């Protein structure tokens, strides 16, 4: 294929694979623990870090990573307080991040920055630094989940049971929230803030149609996520539409086909 000779397309393919691995692993925890809304809050809170990076002149991805991790810890801490509901804690960081992001981006010196790249992403623009970030994060999460898969599964399904097994639930929860935040930031250049949560949930929902096993959902999510990225890339190339939106569109298409096919087989 002619496209494969281009470096940007090779980067896009490798980025798709690494993102699928990272999102497949942590996304399974998100869906199982029903943290989709929290993850959406962290995703939008990261915009504050991007704005801060543009304003101060440091890497927007680095500042977004710091801001997202702190926001994730903040949501986790506030949601455990008796005087604060979880959805209220999420709303605080969601709106604060978006507000700060808009304010700092408009206060940034020089030309007004192009925020669409961060809001909607473009997988064809990812570079070697993005690939290194995704690769290192994916390797760390593979190692972490391999070593601690049993306590992670316990926490995902029943925190009280996990506590009865002497598992340090709070430490694991904060570490996993950090991984959620870092995965979101690592995927921003690919699919953007608006669509990032989709890559963490749609492949897992599709995988969940076929199995309830935590480990099998991870493996299936990685495969389905990568197929979604490949399909989205080709739609983007042929129709000349944004790659981030194309990836999510194709992922939802896979989910719809699997859902309808499963219902048809079950009823026949």
Give a structural overview:
With 268 residues, the protein is mainly α. The protein has helices at 7-33, 36-56, 60-79, 86-107, 116-120, 128-157, 159-164, 169-186, 188-199, 202-207, 214-239, 243-267. It starts with 6 loop residues before the first helix and ends with a helix. It is built from 12 helices and no strands.
| Percent helix range | over 70%
Mean pLDDT over all positions: 90
Outline the biggest β-sheet: none
Give the total of domains: 1
User: What is the CATH homologous superfamily assignment?
Assistant: ABC transporter involved in vitamin B12 uptake, BtuC
| Top-tier CATH class | Mainly Alpha
Described by its quaternary structure, the protein is single chain
Number of helices: 12
- Please identify the structural class as seen in this structure: mainly alpha
What is the tally of beta strands? 0
In short:
This protein has helices spanning 7-33, 36-56, 60-79, 86-107, 116-120, 128-157, 159-164, 169-186, 188-199, 202-207, 214-239, 243-267. The protein has 268 residues and is mainly alpha-helical. The chain crosses the membrane at residues 12-31, 90-111, 131-153, 174-197, 217-235, 247-265.
Strand-helix topology:
Layout (H helix, E strand, L loop, with lengths): L6 H27 L2 H21 L3 H20 L6 H22 L8 H5 L7 H30 L1 H6 L4 H18 L1 H12 L2 H6 L6 H26 L3 H25 L1
Descriptive keywords:
268 residues; mainly alpha; ABC transporter involved in vitamin B12 uptake, BtuC; 81% helix; 0% strand; globular
């Amino acid at each position: 294929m002619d496209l494969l000779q281009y470096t940007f397309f090779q980067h896009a393919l490798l980025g798709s694979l690494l993102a699928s691995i990272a999102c497949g692993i942590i996304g399974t925890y998100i869906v199982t623990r029903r943290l989709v809304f929290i993850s959406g809050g962290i995703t939008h809170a990261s915009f504050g870090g991007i704005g801060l990076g543009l304003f101060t002149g440091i890497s927007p991805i680095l500042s977004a990573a710091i801001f997202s991790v702190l926001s994730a810890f903040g949501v986790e801490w506030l949601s455990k307080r008796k005087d604060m509901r979880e959805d209220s804690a999420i709303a605080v960081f969601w709106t604060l991040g978006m507000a700060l992001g808009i304010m700092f981006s408009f206060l940034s010196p020089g030309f007004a920055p192009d925020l669409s790249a961060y809001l909607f992403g473009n997988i064809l623009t990812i570079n070697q630094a993005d690939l290194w970030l995704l690769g290192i994060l994916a390797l760390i999460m593979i190692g972490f989940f391999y070593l601690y898969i049993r306590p992670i599964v316990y926490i995902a399904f029943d925190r009280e049971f996990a506590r009865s097994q002497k598992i340090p639930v709070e430490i694991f929860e904060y570490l996993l929230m950090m991984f959620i935040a870092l995965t979101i930031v690592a995927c921003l250049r690919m699919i953007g803030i608006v669509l990032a949560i989709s890559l963490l949930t749609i492949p897992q929902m599709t995988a969940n149609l076929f199995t309830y096993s935590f480990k099998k959902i991870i493996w299936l999510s990685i495969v389905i996520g990568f197929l979604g990225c490949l399909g989205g890339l080709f739609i983007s190339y042929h129709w000349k539409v944004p790659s981030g939106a194309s990836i999510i569109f194709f992922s939802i298409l896979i989910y719809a086909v699997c859902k309808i096919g499963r219902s048809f087989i079950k009823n026949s």
